[in-house]
Amino acid sequence: MKVLVVGNGGREHALAWKLLQSPQVEQVVCVPGNGGTANLAGCQNLPLAVDDFAGISQYALANQISLVVVGPEVPLAKGITDYLQAQGLMVFGPVRAGAQIEASKAWAKALMQEAGIPTAKAAVFTEAAAAKSYVQSQGAPIVVKADGLAAGKGVIVATTMEQAESAIDAIFQGQFGSAGEFVVIEECLFGQEVSVLALTDGLTIRPLLPAQDHKRVGEGDTGENTGGMGAYCPAPIATPELMARVQTDVLEKAIATLRSKGIDYRGVLYAGLMITPAGDFKVLEFNCRFGDPETQVILPLLATPLLDLILACVEKRLSEVPITWHSGAAATVVAASGGYPGDYQKGKVITGIDAAETATVTVFHAGTKLNDQQQVVTDGGRVLNVTGTGKNFQQAIAQAYTGLKSIQFEGIYYRRDIGHRVLSAE
Q1: CA–CA separation, 195 vs 187, rounded Å?
Q2: Is the pLDDT of residue 424 over 70?
Q3: Greatest CA separation found in the chain?
Q4: Which residues have C-beta within 8 Å of that of residue 276, sequence separation ≥ 6?
Q5: Burial letters for 347-377: b for 16+ Cβ neighbours within 10 Å, e otherwise?
Q6: Locate the ATP-grasp domain: which residues (predicted)?
């Protein structure tokens, strides 16, 4: 069968790579794809925008596409699943009503409160004066969030009252576009963050292996927030006992509450958790899609064919398909453009990717494309995800960094301490 993957990041390269390992998949088409998917055997790129629903539909219907897998949150929030399903196409990814769980932090917070899911205390405001008054009553540190999709940049952890008030002003003055119509003020939680990505068919919901991201740009988890500078899996802090509680207190409650609202949610439900030093947890946020870069460390460990799981979700029979895993660990390190997450240049030629890849190292492209000379060049802030696997974290992380030694482009930057928590524990 032919599968179409919507998106152009590292997550989508990993999805295409894993889908092509499924025996039934003969071809993957990536829309628009990147330099990695352009060179992936069995894969081709289609130069359409992720929100060109009519173009995607026309191509899929004309070219016998059996399944559409949607990677990014933006087309999901705009209703790509609703549109394509109306054309008779099979789609993996929630409908627009379900995608609100990521597209509106206020809506997600209300759902968590209705479901009784443990989460941070919060309040929602529509004008700056009331938000600032609330901040004054609560004190700092405090978290200020733009309500809608802001490309991962709409969350400000304010350590002072001045920072909190400046963040409120920035949101209401339109710095985050339409995401600034509401502001969500939350208590500041402390601990370690863990990403729990779960697959659901709207009835059954089952978690994949927990992963831990490294969001800060600087070593020692310092500096600005990014889309993610690296990740590892499975995250040891998410013990089997904790995951059992997440299943009952978060995942099952969330999907039941969505169902009670008449929302047929089929796809990925991603819970971002804060785990306290005492071992308790609260939900920071929900996302409506695979995580990035978490997907790049979860999928290499997945033994069950990905296609089998996706079809089981779409066809509402997830309870019938077991999820099995390879033993060991995986780690990915992001090679970024100099200046990221601020201004950076594009078009820098990348060398050494083929030399980096081995039986235990896979390079997933994120911000890359092919230039007119068919060279792979930089085309984004996060350029590559170099993923290593091994029997333990020490081996997996070492493999990722060994692979990075072969890769060069002007201005390359990456953190040299990815996995520092698990290495110190090991």
Answers
A1: 20
A2: yes
A3: 59
A4: 189, 190, 191, 282
A5: ebebeebeebeeebbbbbbbbbbbeeeeebb
A6: 109-315
